[in-house]
Design a protein that fits this description.
The structure is a single chain. The protein is of the alpha/beta class. It has 2 domains: 107-366, Type I PLP-dependent aspartate aminotransferase-like (Major domain) (Aspartate Aminotransferase, domain 2); 384-507, Alpha-Beta Complex (Aspartate Aminotransferase, domain 1), CATH 3.90.1150. Helix content is 35%, strand content 10%. It contains 17 helices and 13 strands. It has helices spanning 7-12, 73-85, 107-113, 116-119, 131-148, 160-177, 194-202, 219-225, 248-257, 290-293, 339-343, 359-395, 425-434, 462-479, 485-490, 502-507, 516-521; strands spanning 152-154, 184-188, 205-209, 230-236, 261-265, 285-287, 308-310, 322-326, 329-333, 400-401, 411-414, 441-442, 452-454. The strands form 3 sheets. Strands 1-7-6-5-4-2-3 form a 7-stranded mixed beta sheet, with helices on both faces. A 4-stranded antiparallel beta sheet has the order 10-11-13-12. Helix 3 (107-113) packs antiparallel against helix 12. The protein is globular and about 70 Å long. 38% of the residues are buried. Residues 13-22 have a biased composition (Polar residues).
């Protein structure tokens, strides 16, 4: 409940025409603590047995209630069921978040991840008891290497930014091994925010490289910035404007000639998997978001996985652990002193995490790859790009594309179409919620004013996209009608909760429920 809201208003919802606050079968749901009935319980517990000398807690007695709400079992079940019905996810409808690849996750992959031989393994088991799991990790690694053309892959990074960290640590280790003390990392303006953050976390100074008028890296500016102090160039390709960096080979060559290495952010790999060999672009390291590109559901904090493919220059420095095949079976190399590590000429920079990677995500990803096959993965990329260009073609006359020409996996628009309407990108996106769609990514990338970034993914049908297009076109026309400023400013109108004071909510969030009597006493 937002700070300052009257509990009765919260029960009845915003401007509800009903006494209960319910709107048909959309039932208004208070916090579970507001449903508390002291003394009520969903279970019957026997009284504590009498013990010699009084209680069994050494005289420590409760001074007040535990603070857990008292409800019957039906009330508990209904509460959490109703909450689940208020959640919006990829299984509910179209989820066009740009740069996030929120696509359908085949249930076959979920079924395989739940097989007892995969779901019940423990990282402390002896390796002889998890040979199948180690083989799966190695098989998945082989798929990733074959798809990218890269000779090595670090499997343990837990997510995208973690994979970036692995790649940059490998770059630092490689430079240190050749006695090359470089201190600067170059990052394009349109990079993901984690790119400069990762470079800074590794100890580098960050310098920004501008984009050209076509929304891509200004190659001349990059070449001017290269020098003996530059350790690496971090680039996202396709970039966050949804555009393929056409000069990628030239960029890599220029960096290598200057003694720098190239890190490519793989967050948008869904647009090019099966179509582009990363090694052919001259890249030295790239993380791959298995949770975006290869099926695992994500959002709300996880789960994720960010394997990082490495070039010949970085392969010796790949982090521990890694799997090798020996005569006795599959072996997990956990320590640099392991003969298998020294024998392969590897000098790992260390470990990325306590265990061996996100195994459940590995299972889903390999299931996805093997069920799709190489041709299916290529088609997924083709369809993702087709869907994005379909949105671009159908919306370009009512929205304002940020850059000319075809796009890759996402369509990027700016807010010029809202000029002089009094309607902002935020207003427009909130109104889209009333139409039954999760809003697109707003105000990102930062290089585009009032950005609206839409990624339809390959799993959305033309019928779904047509309904979305119809809604967006109608809202754009309504915004330009000159009579709907108040409508947009108050949107969404049909949700269980209306628009909050977002600045106040971000700066002074109410994260803990306080009982009314406690508030009164205070």
């Amino acid at each position: 409940m937002p700070e300052g809201m009257n509990p009765m208003d919260a029960m009845q919802g915003a401007n509800s025409p009903t006494v209960t606050g319910n709107k048909g079968l959309q039932v208004e749901e208070p916090l579970i603590f507001e449903m508390d009935s002291p003394g009520k319980s969903a279970v019957d517990l026997p009284p504590a047995p009498e013990t010699a000398g009084g209680d069994r807690l050494g005289g420590l007695k409760r001074k007040g209630r535990v603070g857990l709400p008292g409800l019957s079992e039906p009330e508990v079940v209904r509460h959490y069921t109703r909450l689940s019905q208020k959640n919006y996810g990829i299984d509910t409808g179209f989820f066009p978040l740009g740069s996030c690849t929120m696509k359908h996750n085949p249930r076959l992959n979920e079924k395989l991840a739940r097989l007892s031989g995969f779901s019940d393994v423990h990282p402390f088991q002896p390796t002889k008891t998890v040979q199948g799991a180690l083989e799966l990790i190695d098989t998945l690694a082989d798929w990733l290497k074959r798809m990218t053309g890269m000779p090595a892959v670090a499997m343990s990074p837990a997510a995208g930014a973690h994979g970036e960290l692995a790649g940059m640590l490998a770059i630092r280790a490689a430079l240190e091994a050749r006695g090359d003390a470089r201190s600067i990392v170059l990052v394009p303006e349109s990079a993901h925010g984690t790119n400069p953050a990762t470079a800074a976390a590794v100890g580098y100074k960050v310098r920004s490289i501008p984009a050209n008028d076509a929304g891509r890296v200004d190659v001349d500016a990059l070449k001017d910035a290269l020098g003996p102090d530059v350790a690496a160039f971090m680039i996202t390709n396709p970039n966050t404007c949804g555009l393929f960096e056409r000069d990628m080979v030239e960029i890599s060559a220029a960096c290598h000639e200057a003694g720098a290495l190239v890190y490519m952010d793989g967050a948008n790999y869904n647009a090019i998997m099966g179509r582009v060999k990363i090694a052919d672009l001259g890249v030295d390291a790239m993380h791959i978001n298995l949770h975006k590109t290869f099926s695992t559901p994500h959002g709300g904090g996880g789960p994720g996985s960010g394997p990082t493919v490495l070039s010949d220059a970085l392969a010796p420095f790949a982090p521990l652990p890694f799997v090798v095949k020996q005569d006795s079976g599959w072996h997990l190399v956990e320590h640099e002193a392991d003969p298998a590590c020294k024998g392969a000429g590897k000098t790992p920079f260390g470990r990325m995490k306590g265990y061996h990677g996100q195994f459940g995500v590995f299972v889903r990803a390999l299931s996805y790859m093997m069920s799709m096959g190489g041709d299916g993965l290529r088609q997924a990329s083709d369809d993702a790009v087709l869907n994005a260009n379909y949105l671009m073609a159908k919306l370009s006359d009512v929205l304002t594309p940020s850059f000319e020409g075809p796009t890759m996996h996402e369509a990027l628009f700016d807010d010029r179409f809202l000029k002089d309407t009094g309607v902002s990108t935020l207003d427009f996106s909130k109104a889209l919620i009333d139409e039954g769609f999760h809003p697109m990514t707003m105000y990102f990338p930062l290089v585009v004013h009032g950005a609206l970034l839409m990624e339809p993914t390959e799993t959305e049908s033309r019928q779904t996209l047509d309904v979305f297009i119809t809604a967006v076109r109608a809202l754009a026309e309504k915004a330009r009608s000159g009579q709907a400023k108040e409508y947009f400013a108050a949107a969404p109108h049909l949700t269980p909760r209306r628009r909050l004071d977002e600045t106040r909510a971000a700066r002074k969030p109410v994260l803990r429920w306080t009982a009314p009597e406690a508030t009164a006493d205070a």
